[in-house]
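FIELD: query
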Amino acid sequence: MITAPQLRAARSLLGIDQRRLAELSGLSVPTIQRMEASGSIIRGNVDSLMKLIAALEVAGIELIGEGAVSQGGGRGVRLKAGFDPAKTSEADGNEAEPGGSLP
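FIELD: result
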């Protein structure tokens, strides 16, 4: 299982755009765009999700599930349990851009 925020973060960590991720995964750019625009958990064709996850793993991304411990070591980031980024942007009247940061 992968969430849209995880996908955007993974792509950002790799420094690649949607087009490059589409090439690496064998998916179309519109498919990647739809996945990234999902509200939370990405829904879709199982084959497409498997291609996406495999491409990210080959590229060096370790997807960490909710409450799971990273076994791979290395550096990383994760959201704190129960944190809602939308509430942060609402509190100060700013909206975080995908892949960006709050001022």
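FIELD: remark
The CA atoms of residues 35 and 41 lie 9 Å apart.
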